């Protein structure tokens, strides 16, 4: 491990030597940490949620009790655990087990059987295993119009998500009445949900050539521009999430956002580096692409006429005729 100066924006590694393909002889990584988000956790006490939220290095997490809650306008996201304010924030939030009588509360608690994904291919469930996850009980969210079901059961939906008016999450159960927090899938799910709700303004990692990059303009940004490695500039829209697709050049891309008269600078890089190509450990199993199916040619092959049975029959008749002639003295 090599030390990186605190003031460094990027780190570049090069291979000294000449080969026939020089484009992959260097790789650049972004050294600056992304902009931090202020996140509020309102809970009577939940170490599982707190530790899962602290896994995001760009979160500045404050934890308070429900009695100390006075609003969350200063926070980018709020997590409510067994508590619901009289007025829900107009911002991203996650709510676990809303109290009875609150606006998002469900019906009477029901026992839960098998837990499963509503859609196993949902990106929010990437790397989240729900096998061997047990939930003792949950509020009946069958009649909830909060949003679409992400995790469900035969009895009731368990986790609901919605995109409007903001990206928000509602879970009808108390995590303490489940073994889900004891599974590796729980912090991964919290990470997936938080990244969906509060994506980094500019992802500070490496991309492959021609891979699109999602850029979330800072709040109040009056202009957003991307400076490509060759120095050319591309202006982006400021009012919504933008996908930047002109990543055909290798090197460092600079994102400049003007906020309140100041220029906020962030970076991402494009490299030919591939995790799969750099994996030198022998594989136990090689996965091949599916074979192409070609239509079978419709042809008629007549083959050869087999005459040996007839030849054998004629020979047998001749032998029998000779035998009869011999015995009759002909």
Helical fraction = 10-25%
Regarding quaternary structure, how should these chains be classified? single chain
Terminal Cα separation, in Å?
110 Å
Named CATH architecture of the largest domain: 3-Layer(aba) Sandwich
**Proportion of β residues?**
25-35%
Number of helices: 4
- Quickly count the domains: 2
Radius of gyration: 34 Å
Order of helices and strands: EEEHEEEEEEEEEHEEEEEEEHH
List the uncertain runs: none
Give me the side-by-side strand order of the main sheet. Answer: 4-3-5-6-12-11-10-8
Total beta strands:
19
> CATH class of the largest domain, please?
Alpha Beta
Helix/strand structural class: alpha/beta
CATH-derived topology of the largest domain = Rossmann fold
Q: Mean of residue pLDDT?
A: 85
Principal-axis shape:
flat
The largest sheet, given as strand count, sense and whether it forms a barrel, is: 8 strands, mixed
Report on this model:
With 330 residues, the protein is an alpha/beta fold. The chain has 2 domains: 37-197, Class I glutamine amidotransferase (GATase) domain (Rossmann fold, 3-Layer(aba) Sandwich); 201-274, Macroglobulin (MG2) domain (Immunoglobulin-like, Sandwich). 14% of the residues lie in helices and 29% in strands. It has 4 helices and 19 strands. The strands form 5 sheets. An 8-stranded mixed β-sheet has the order 4-3-5-6-12-11-10-8, covered by helices on one side. Strands 13-19-18-15-16 form a 5-stranded mixed β-sheet, with no helix packed on it. A hairpin with a 5-residue loop joins strand 11 and strand 12.
